[in-house]
Design brief:
mainly alpha
Length: about 240
């Protein structure tokens, strides 16, 4: 999973599967529980990966369905979407493919979110719905493509390395980036909550506020965004 977000380098990322946890007293416990569950999912999925690598699709399908019963195993659901879309190991069925893509999208998988958006846009396995298409495009694309562009444009104008320094333009792009993040956070986009956490941790366009940063990281993890686990672990280490 490639995370194209404005503040990617601030914390080490964990590209394992997802779980939403809640513990208001101890952010480290939240991250530990998430990572423990993610490792268990990855270990359980390993035999399925072996079957798929050997084109044993018919054997893999029932194991994938069993794995996908854990709603946080977005990889299993996403893979089922691929198999039903392509007709590998099962009869091709766009409606069933959409069902599995939607489950993966709701678990936070960026690729599945774009698949669901395209399905709603084009009527693939579901009734056409431009409004739902727009929602899922915002989930899967707005933070990495639009907000990221504004953030780095602001940094470029501030640094004056590729173009003359322009503090006014730097502030404008930085402000628009933060405004978009807040709008997307209100729509429960986990990547937006994570980036807002980074902004408050480092003071990017806002006053540094570790408590506010933690709250955004918690929300990002609850909204199925994996890097938030590493961020919460980092906060716990800083506080001990």
């Amino acid at each position: 999973m490639l995370m194209l977000i404005p503040f990617t380098q601030a914390f080490a990322q964990d590209n394992t599967s997802l779980i939403a946890m809640s513990n208001p007293a101890n952010p480290g416990a939240v991250a530990d529980a998430y990572l423990s569950h993610a490792r268990a999912i990855r270990k359980a999925d390993a035999p399925i990966v072996h079957l798929l690598n050997h084109s044993a699709y018919t054997q893999a399908v029932p194991l994938l369905k069993k794995a996908a019963a854990d709603k946080y195993d977005f990889w299993a659901a996403d893979t089922l979407g691929h198999l039903y879309q392509a007709g590998l190991g099962v009869s091709a069925n766009s409606q069933t493919a959409f069902h599995w893509y939607l489950q993966a999208a709701e678990a936070g998988d960026r690729f599945a979110q774009r698949q669901v958006a395209n399905a709603y846009l084009n009527g693939w396995g579901v009734t056409r719905n431009p409004q739902r298409a727009a929602f899922w495009f915002r989930q899967g694309l707005m933070v990495p493509q639009v907000v990221n562009a504004d953030f780095w444009l602001g940094k470029t104008y501030a640094a004056g390395k590729l173009m003359p320094k322009n503090p006014t333009k730097a502030a404008w792009y930085e402000g628009r980036s933060l405004a978009l993040l807040k709008q997307l956070d209100a729509e429960h986009v986990g990547a937006a909550a994570y980036d807002l956490g980074i902004a408050y941790w480092h003071g990017y366009g806002v006053k540094k506020d570790a408590h506010q940063a933690e709250q955004y990281f918690r929300r990002a993890l609850a909204e199925h965004y994996p890097p938030a686990a590493a961020a919460l672990q980092h906060l716990e280490e800083k506080n001990t």
